[in-house]
Known about the structure:
9 helices, Thrombin, subunit H, alpha+beta, single chain
Amino acid sequence: MNNFIRKSTLYLLLSAFLFIFAPISHAFVPALTGAGNPNLIADIVEKVGPAVVNIDVIKVQQTSVFNPFKDFGFGFDLDPDFRNFFEDHAVPIRGAGSGFIINQDGLIFTNEHVVRGADKIRVTLKDGRSFDGKVIGSDNTLDLAIVKINAHDLPTISLGDSSKARPGELAIAIGNPYGFSNTVTAGIISATGRTLGELGKKDLIQTDAAINPGNSGGPLININGEVIGINVAIVAQAQGIGFAIPINEAKEIKDDLVTKGKVVRPWLGIYMRDVDEKIAAYLKLPVADGIVVIDIVDESPAQKMGVQKYDIIKEINGLAVRKSEEALKLIQKMKPGDAISLIIYREGKNYALSGRLEERPAQK
Length: 364
C-alpha cells in the first residue's frame, strides 16, 4: 500500500513538472523565433545578408608637422627636399560603416555621416567582390545618403513599413561593427518615436539588438526579412540602447536623392517654440498655449510675409496648431512655391498673413 502511495505521488510530481514547464517551453519558442522555427533568424540572414555591404572610406586631411627652423625663426632656409619633411602633409583618415543594396544596378542606402567628406569609397559585398563607390545623393538633416557602384544583377533587400513596427517585435541588425564584417545581432524593438535632441533626430526606432561603431548605415530588419530602419546611433554608456532611422523616412526622400542629389524642402524661415507659463507671463498672453516665434531669418518667406518676433502662430492654412511639432509637420508636407497662410496673435489682436514657401537654403 505504501509502495503504491509512493509511486502515485511520484507520478503526480512528474505530471506537475511537465504541466508547468512544457507549456512555457512551447509558448516562448514561437514568440522568439516565429512560428516555431528555431532557425528563423538564420534563415532571414541567409536570405537578406548578401544585400548588406561594408563601406570603407578614406578622407584626406591636411596636417602640419612642427618645423623648428621655421617656427623659431632661425633666419636661414633649408634644402628644399629636407624642408618638405617639415611642411604640410596629406594624411589619410580611414573610416568604416555599413549599407544595403536597394537596386540591382548598385544603389545603396547608408548614413550621410558615414560618407561625409569622403575622398574615396570602397564597397565590399558579402561574396568578396569590391567596387569603388560614389555618393549620388545625401541629406544631413535625416543623415541619409545613397552610394552608387557600377555593378548589375546584385542581391537586394526589401523595404518594409516602419509605421507598423511595434515594441516587442523581433529585430535583426547586420553590419560591419569595428571592422567585423557581416556581423549579425538580434533583439527586439524596444520603443518607437524616440528623440535624440543632441543629434536633432526624431521619431527613431529604439532597439536592443547590439549596435556598435561601424553598424552605421546598416539595416534593422523585421521578422519578414524587410528593412524597417537604418541603424544610426547608440548610447555609448548604456547596454542595448541603439537607434535606427525609420525606413519610411528614407523611402520618402529616395527619389530626390537619386534624381536631384539632395532633398528639396520647403522653408518658412522662423525659429519657434511652444508657449509655456514663463513665456505666457512675459508676453502677457491670456493662456499658456500655442507657438511663439522667437526669431526670424533675414530675407526669409516669413519676413516677407510680415511675421514678427514674439508673434503667436494659431493657424496654418486654416488648421489650428498648438505645438511647434504640429506646425513643422504641416510645413514639411508642402513644397517650395506653395502658398501658405497664417493666423497670428499679436498684442491682443489676430492678424492674417500670407505668402509662399521657398526652398530651404543648404546652410539653414
